Structure to design on (223 residues):
């Protein structure tokens, strides 16, 4: 079993729809990261969370430390949101290295 | 805005040849990571540096891969000889000492033919 599990693996939505991506982890962490990767591109950090909820524009990230679960929400989705969204966790015991989930491929159709 | 620089962006090489990638982290970042991302999968750590010292290289295939960060600033990852299975995106990231947020470069996409 992977230490970081994401669901779904693939997601297709119509423009304007509300999107949720889930991430569960099985190890102790110091922070959870949501990352975005466009096709052929590098990785951009969207959020780093250790508790609660963060919001940036149309993106909202939440984390429940007790349940070891996080969600990334995209409100009013747009075709430019089409990308791979990756959940990763870091732990001080591991030298802050990131352990990645497999990613969720999101396609938003106009 | 400070960013992690990587070069080249793309590299095509024949199997059994040597190939090298370069990474320049954000100025002042003590920790540097090299990750490999096979198409359709999440990245996996190859090597982590703290300044010029290797902290974790447990997943680095040491028979063909080597990494160095001689002055604790920029870093080079080398593969010799390259194999077809090495085709992947190689990502470099850096973070400040004690920091948990990592900043990623654009990556080098390697194709071995």
């Amino acid at each position: 079993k992977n230490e970081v599990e994401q669901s779904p693996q693939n997601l297709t939505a119509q423009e304007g729809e509300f999107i949720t991506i889930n991430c569960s982890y099985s190890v102790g962490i110091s922070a959870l990261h949501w990352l975005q990767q466009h096709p052929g591109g590098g990785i951009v950090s969207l959020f780093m969370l250790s508790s609660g909820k963060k919001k940036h524009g149309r993106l909202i990230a939440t984390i429940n430390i007790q349940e070891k679960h996080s969600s990334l929400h995209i409100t009013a989705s747009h075709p430019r949101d089409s990308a791979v969204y990756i959940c990763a966790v870091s732990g001080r015991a591991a030298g802050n290295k990131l352990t990645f989930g497999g990613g969720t491929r999101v396609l938003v159709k106009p | 805005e400070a960013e992690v620089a990587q070069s080249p962006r793309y590299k095509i090489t024949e199997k059994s040849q040597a190939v090298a990638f370069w990474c320049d982290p954000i100025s002042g970042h003590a920790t540097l990571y090299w990750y490999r991302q096979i198409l359709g999968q999440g990245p996996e750590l190859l090597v982590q540096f703290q300044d010029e010292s290797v902290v974790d290289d447990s997943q680095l295939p040491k028979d063909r891969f080597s990494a160095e960060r001689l002055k604790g600033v920029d870093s080079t990852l080398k593969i010799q000889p390259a194999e077809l299975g090495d085709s992947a995106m190689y990502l470099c990231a850096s973070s400040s000492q004690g920091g948990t947020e990592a900043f990623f470069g654009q990556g080098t996409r390697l194709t071995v033919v």
The CA atoms of residues 52 and 102 of chain B lie 18 Å apart. Chain B has a mean pLDDT of 92. Chain B has no helices and eleven strands. Chain B touches chain A at residues 6, 31, 33, 35, 41-45, 48, 50, 55-56, 91, 93, 95, 99-107, 109 (CB under 8 Å).
